[in-house]
Every structure is written in C-alpha cells, then in structure tokens.
Design brief:
Elements: H1 2-15, H2 21-36, H3 46-58, H4 63-81, H5 93-96, H6 110-118, H7 123-135, H8 139-144, E1 150-151, E2 158-162, E3 168-172, H9 175-187, H10 207-221, H11 227-240, H12 245-252, H13 257-266, H14 269-282
Antiparallel strand pairs: 1-2, 2-3
Helix pairs in contact: 1-2, 2-4, 6-10, 7-9, 7-11, 11-13, 12-13
Length: 290
C-alpha cells in the first residue's frame, strides 16, 4: 500500500503545494500502514479497520483524531477507485466512525488575554496574535500571509486570507490590529521574501514556530491559552455585539453555518434574557409546608 499512498500524496501536493493537506494525509496514512501492514488495498478488511481503531484508542488518541485518520483512508480509496472502479473501501462510517463529544467553544478570559499580551514586547509577535484575536485568523492563515495580501491603505483596511482548502476570504482590520501590523512593517527586515511574518532567517514562519512562540508567552504569563482560543474570543465578541450569524460565518471562514452556530449556542443572549426574566418571575414561589 506504500506505493499507492505515495501516488495519492503526490497528487494532493500537485493540486495544492502550499497547503498542509498532503503532509497531514501522508502522516495519517503511514500511521495506518504501521498498524495494518503494507498489504494491497484490496486485501484490507473490515477487521483490519476494527483493529486499527482499537490500536489508536489504546494509544489514547481522541475520537476526532481517529476519525480524521479514517477520513484519510477513505480519501485514499476514493482516489484509487478512479483507476479501479471495483475497489471497495473497507471503512464503513456507520460501523467505524466514532462519536465525538460536542463541546462548546471556549473563549479566553479577558484577564488571561491581558496577561498574555503584557509579556509580549516583540512587534512581530504582537501583530501575529492580534490578527488571531481581532480578526479570527487561524494559525496556518497567519503563517501563510504575504505582503501582497495587505490592503492597509484602503478604506476600510483589510487582508486577503487563504483559509482551509485554499478558500480565500476578506478579513477586515480593527484599528488595534491595523496599528499592530503597521508597527511591525516599520521594522520588518528588507528581504526578497514575500511572506509577511519572517523568521530570524528571513524566511516564512511555520505553524510550529508560531505555536512555540505562543507556548513561550503563555508560560511567561502563567496562563493556559491556545491559538484557537484567540479565534474563539473573536467570534464570541461578535456574537456579544449581535452581529448576524451569516456575517460571522464569512469572517471566520466557516464552510458550514452549523460551525458558526456553536458560538451562538455558547453565548445566546436571548436564552440568557429569557432565563433571567423567568427567574425573576419565579423568585417569589415558595414551597407549601405539607
């Protein structure tokens, strides 16, 4: 199966060399082969998939991670079916897909945000993390930004962001985020690289490098914070300001409205108002003595 995986990953890379998809699929599928064995795709059975899931769960992997690995296997078989129409994928969603816990998004507490940025003196890092907090960018979207994506002189100032599956969207800059980017640009080293955020080697930053910077600052601040929590805080602020859900969907770059609606569920002001109105009405109720 190694040869088939190589062909599939190379195809993904040709389609979109800048995306991480081909790397992620390659890693997931190699994990699959390490457990199932390097057998022909036609020889993989339902029991092999069962054993793969059991082995992944025994390692402590979460259902979402295991489901992602299964999705990679299904994508491989879909790719191979173009040349082999009779090839049957051994992954059966109704049998193998694991139930994932439905968790509400967790925005970062305001006090933690204050402490996080208070220990950050580097203009580049302030600009990167403010784009996550005030514009809702993913860490990969920050890493992928280029100078040609900036429209700071226009009104309103905005960015062109390449999101998941190379889907582009427009992101507008708050005054705070615009000022942070301009401050960084004033001291950005002169180089031929078009990447907005540069490493010390004057090349583009990887997502791993940005994550390490976040880990460093959160340790210095004595808090627990993730890059996705910064994005959650952006969406939560928009919900609190009564921004329409479809507008939030566009700003966040969500493909499906249901992804955005989780933020509404986590901070539904109408539900809050209805509850406290009812609580006031029920406050005078007393239990009759028997």
């Amino acid at each position: 199966m190694i040869d088939e995986i190589t062909c599939f990953v190379n195809w993904l890379r040709r389609r979109n060399p800048q995306a991480r998809t081909w790397r992620d699929y390659g890693y997931d599928l190699n994990q699959f082969v390490a457990i199932v064995g390097d057998k022909p795709p036609t020889a993989v059975t339902l029991q092999d998939i069962d054993n793969f899931i059991t082995a992944q769960a025994a390692r402590g992997l979460k259902p979402a991670t295991i489901n992602r690995h299964l999705a990679a296997v299904m994508s491989l078989y879909t790719f191979l079916a173009d040349e082999h129409p009779d090839l049957v994928c051994p992954v059966l969603p109704h049998r193998h897909t694991l139930r994932e816990p439905q968790r509400l998004p967790r925005p970062a507490p305001e006090a933690d945000l204050q402490r996080f940025f208070a220990v950050m003196a580097d203009a580049r890092d302030q600009a990167m993390f403010l784009l996550m907090l005030r514009c809702g960018l993913r860490i990969a979207e920050v890493a992928g930004l280029r100078l040609s994506d900036l429209y700071l002189a226009e009104s309103p100032p905005r960015l062109r962001v390449s999101g998941k599956n190379s889907k582009e969207r427009v992101v507008y800059l708050s005054d705070q985020a615009r000022q942070a980017v301009q401050t960084y640009l004033a001291e950005r080293p002169s180089t031929t690289s078009d990447f907005l955020f540069l490493s010390y080697q004057l090349a583009g930053l990887s997502t791993t490098a940005i994550h390490k910077r976040l880990m460093r600052y959160r340790t210095a601040a004595g808090i627990h914070l993730t890059a996705h929590q910064l994005r959650h805080s952006f969406a939560n602020d928009l919900v609190s300001a009564d921004v329409p859900v479809t507008t939030i969907q566009n700003l966040m770059g969500h493909a499906w409205l249901v992804s955005t609606q989780t933020y509404i569920a986590a901070n539904d002001r109408k539900v809050q108002a209805d509850f406290y109105t009812a609580a006031q009405q029920l406050a005078g109720w007393q239990v009759e003595a028997g």
